[in-house]
Amino acid sequence: MSTKSRYFPNNSSTLSKVQDPRAELIHCLTAIVNGAPPQKPWSGKFLGLYSGPTSIAYLFLHLTKTHPDLIIEGKNGKEWCEAYLDCGSDEIAIDEGKRMGIKNGYLAWRSVKAALTKDINMVQEMLDGVNKLHESIGEGENELFDGRAGTLALLRVVRFWVPEAKGTVDEVMKMLIRHIITHRPCTWYDGSEFLGSAHGVVGTVLQVVLSDRSFAGELEGALEEVLDQQQEDGNWYIKMEKSDKGGYVQWCHGSPGVVIGLVRMRHCFPGLKDRLDSAIEKGRKNVWEKGVLIKEPCLCHGISGNMLALEGDQREHLMSFATRERVQEGIKDGSVVEANDDRYGLLFGEPGRAWAWMVLDSGQDLGFPAYSTEA
Asked: Is 27 annotated as a binding residue?
């Protein structure tokens, strides 16, 4: 492991401000539409809300809500959303026996398309796909990226934007939730039970209770196990009941993703209020001290995601390290590690940075996309 620190020291007594968050947002959005313009055929991968044109369409879908009048290169958010939905994702065949979740291109495209068009037939097409995949994939495929928990996040997109479909969507959600609860623990990769947001207990519990709070009682014990695993410095290990040398402070593994999840589902577990409040406070301290990461800002492994674990002026302070000028200076002098892949994917690239600026500029607490969002 490299001895180089993963983060910049964050010991300033004065909180930094960002001069113009709107300008930063516009820069990111402009970079996206010029660097990865909507085109058919699309030159990259189709990975649902994780990466690819549907993930960019999802960003612009939310821009229609936060900045409906913002024009980027001659188009508004709705027009860009339509353009990125027309890049060939609709031609992806449902691949029965393969994984489902936020990376599933077939389901993700239909969720965003239904959200934009309010087309009930598109909703039904997506629900039919969910049913087919649920019956054909492995019983243990239940995490966020590739499993049933991630499918719950996609279904919430539809439920929010197409409220008249709520009844039928809720029934499919219940089917998935009952399966997830029955087939705990949720294991991933090497058969281990992971703890955090992307592949672990926190991410799975969060998707369940945001989709149907009535199941919270059946998962309270699982959440208590997570709280028991918090380290003295406020962070969490990657796997349940196992220590590791990672020390990661990022959304994917570590305190930022856990804190974002705990904050979002705190109201679902009133019996754990004091423990949750204490864990959140300790976790935020860890994010504040070690979360200004040297990686080029992104949602999954960077400042853009970590700031969503904080509140108010602390969010803006973290994003002061993510301005265009500061990042470019850091890349030039070697203090910032430049991203070398997936530059235009939502979780690892420019769209995720745009999401963070969208949150900061609008003042709307949108949550972490496809994780702690209602939509």
From this structure: no
User: What single-letter DSSP state applies at residue 141?
Assistant: -
Angle at 108 between CA 104 and CA 111, to 5 degrees: 150
Cα 196 to the chain's mean position, in Å? 12
- Cα 45 from Cα 119, distance rounded (Å): 26
Contact 197, 236 (CB under 8 A): no
pLDDT in tens, 340-364: 679 999 999 999 999 999 999 999 9
Is 298 annotated in a binding site? The answer is: no
Angle at 67 between CA 63 and CA 69, to 5 degrees: 115
Prediction pTM value: 0.97
For 26, residues 6+ apart whose C-beta sits below 8 A from its C-beta are 70, 72
Cα 223 from Cα 204, distance rounded (Å): 10
300 is in an annotated binding site: yes
Q: What tokens were used for 249?
A: 């402070």
What is the identity of the amino acid at 226?
Answer: V
Contact (CB, 8 A) for 119 and 72: no
CB-based contact 87:39 (threshold 8 Å) = yes
Query: What's the confidence (pLDDT) of residue 28?
Result: 98
Distance CA 253, CA 68 (A): 34
- The token pair that represents 133 in the structure block: 């995949």
- Which residues are within 8 A (CB) of 100 and not within 5 positions of it... i.e. 6 or more apart? 107, 130, 133, 134, 137, 141, 146, 147, 148, 150, 151
Residue ranges of domains in the chain, CATH in brackets: 39-291 (1.50.10.10)
Residue that is written with structure tokens 């055929």 in the block: 41
- Please provide the DSSP assignment of 7-50 as one string: B-----SS----S-HHHHHHHHHHHHHHHS---SS-SS--BTTT
Cis peptide before 9 (omega within 30 of 0): no
